[in-house]
Amino acid sequence: MIDRRAFVQLAAGAGTASLAAACGWDGGNAVRPLLLDVSRFNDWIGEKILFSQSRLAPEYSTAERTAQLPSYFISPELPMLQDPKAWRLQVSGLVRTPLTLSLADLQTMPRTTYTVKHHCVEGWSAIATWHGVPVSAVAERCGMLPQARYVRFDSFDSGYSNGWDLASAMHPQTILAYGMNDNPLSPTHGAPLRLYSPTKLGYKMTKYLVSLTFTAERPGGYWEDQGYPWFGGV
Amino acid sequence: MTAPPVPAAHPPAKPVKRHHWIVRLTHWMTFVLLAGMIMSGLQIYGAYARFGERGGPYYVNAFENTAFPTWSRLGGWLAGGLNWHFTLMWPLIAGGFLYLSYLAVSGEWRSLLFRPRDIRGAIEMQKYYLRLRKEHPPQGKHNPLQKLAYTFIILLGVLSVLTGFAIYKPTQLSWLTALFGGFQAARYWHFWAVWIFTAFLIVHVILVFVVDPASLRAMISGWYRGRFPSHD
Questions:
Q1: Residue B204 is part of which domain span?
Q2: Can you give the pLDDT of all 232 residues of chain B as single tens digits?
Q3: Which residue of B has its CA nearest to A9?
Q4: I need a labelling partner for B31 at 20 to 30 A (CA). Which of A101, A166, B126, B222 fits?
C-alpha cells in the first residue's frame, strides 16, 4: 500500500526531475546510459519481433513520386570521386571469395527496381524509385560464410559507415542502388553506389559506398555511435 | 418524528474509500510519463516541423515550422528526444494496461465508461450546469459527463499508442499506418493528441479545484471526504 506521504514525495520527486529535464536534458551521465540500454532493447524488439524477412514494404506507382528527396552527407562539401572509372566496391570479411566489383559488374547482376517510401528519422518521408542489385545476390556471389552475422558498409564520405544485422541486409528489398528515378544515381544521393532499403531509416542507408564487410561482431556506425537507434528499422 | 433528510450538497464529512491503489498509482504515473512523452515529442517534432510528404502539400498546422521553447522540450537533440520517447513509452503503455485490466477485472468500468444509457443522464447533468435544473442529479461514482470525459481520454490514450506505433514502424506495421491514412497523417493525429491531452489536463485541473477539491486528496490517499456522495 502506498500511503499519502509516499505519494506526495513521489510527486515532488517527479516534479523536480521534470524541472531538471526541462532544459533539453538528454539524461546526463546518470540516465543516458539507461536510455541507451532501452534503445538496445527496442532494437531487439525491432529485429526479432517486428521485422520479418518475408514482409515487403508497400510499393507505389511512379506517378506517386514526391517532388523532393533531400540529400544529406557529413563531409563539408559534396563527396565526389576524383576518378569515377577507378571506383570499385570491395567485398570482404567472412566470405569464401573476396570480390572487387566495378559498377559494370554490379549492373550485370540481378536487378531490382521498386518505388517505395523513404522514412527519415527526422520525421519526413518521400517516395522515389530505386534501381540496384540485392545485397543477398552479392552475398551469394562472394560465398558468405555461416559465421557472418552482421554487415558493415563503409563510404568515402568522411568515414561515414553503418552496421547492419544480417537478416535486414538479406531482405529482398535491401539493395546496392546505382540508379534513382530512372537515372544513374546522382552525387547528391550517394553516387556511384549506395545502400537502400524501405525497411530502414535513411541514416542506415550508407551512401558513397566503397566496401561491404561481413563480420561476426556487431559494427557501430556514424550516427548509431552518437546515440541514434542502432537497428533503425521502420 | 423523523430527522429531516440531509441535503445532498452538505453531507457529513464521512470518509469513503474512493480509489484503489492501482488507480492512484497509474493516475500519477501517467501524469509524469505523459509529460515526458509530450516534452520529448516536442523535441522530435522540431526536426521536421510540418506534416506532409517532402515537397508538399502540407496539412493545416498552426505549429508549422514552430520551434518549441527549450523548457518545453526533453532530450537536448533529436537522438536524445527519441531515446527518451522510446524509453518512457514502455512504462506508459504498461501503466495503461494495468489500469485497463483493473477496470475490467474489478468491474469498475461500469461506473467509469460512458454507455448509451448514460446519454439521458448526461443531458440532465448539462441542464444542471446550465442552471436549467436546480438540484444536482443523482449519480454514481462519476456523473455521466465525467464518464464521457474519462471514456474519451482513455480512447485518446489508445489512439496515441496506435498512431505512435504506426509512425514507429510504418513498414513492418504498414497495415496500421494505412489505417490512419499513411505515415504523415498518422504523425499528424499523434501530434493532435498532444493538444487534446493538454486541453484535457487544463480543464481537469480547473474542475478539480473549482468544483471538488476533495477529489485531489482522494486521488492521493484513496479516501474521499467531499460533498458529492455516490448513489451506488
A1: 108-116+148-220
A2: 445 454 555 555 678 889 999 999 999 999 999 999 999 999 999 999 999 999 889 999 999 999 999 999 999 999 999 999 999 999 999 999 999 999 999 999 998 999 999 999 999 999 998 988 888 888 888 889 999 999 999 999 999 999 999 999 999 999 999 999 999 999 999 999 999 999 999 999 999 999 889 999 999 999 998 887 675 5
A3: B220
A4: B126
Does B143 fall in a domain? no
Q: Which residue has the cell 549492373?
A: A107
Residues B112 and B172 in one domain: yes
Specify whether B213 is located in the same domain as B157: yes
Question: Could you give phi then psi for residue A123, rounded to 5 degrees?
Answer: 115, -5
Considering only CB atoms, A38 lies closest to which of B53, B87, B169, namely B87
- Which residues make beta-bridge pairs with A180? A130, A183
Q: How far apart are the CA of B29 and the nearest CA of chain A, in angstroms?
A: 9
Partner residue opposite B84 with nearest CB, options A35, A58, A229:
A35
The answer to whether residues B206 and B112 belong to one domain is yes
Own/partner contacts of B57-62, CB < 8 Å, gap of 24 or more, are B59/B184, B59/B185, B59/B188, B61/B188, B61/B191
SS3 content of chain B, % helix, strand, coil (to 5): 60, 0, 35
* CATH fold of the domain at A87-226: Sulfite Oxidase; Chain A, domain 2 (3.90.420)
In this structure, what is the dihedral angle of CA atoms A109, A115, A120, A125, given to the nearest 10 degrees? 170
Residue A126 is nearest to which of B25, B43, B53, comparing CB atoms? B53
Q: Does B215 lie in the same domain as B112?
A: yes
Instruction: Tell me B58's DSSP state.
Output: -
Chain B residues in contact with A39 (beta carbon < 8 A): 83, 86-87
Which ipTM was obtained for this model? 0.88
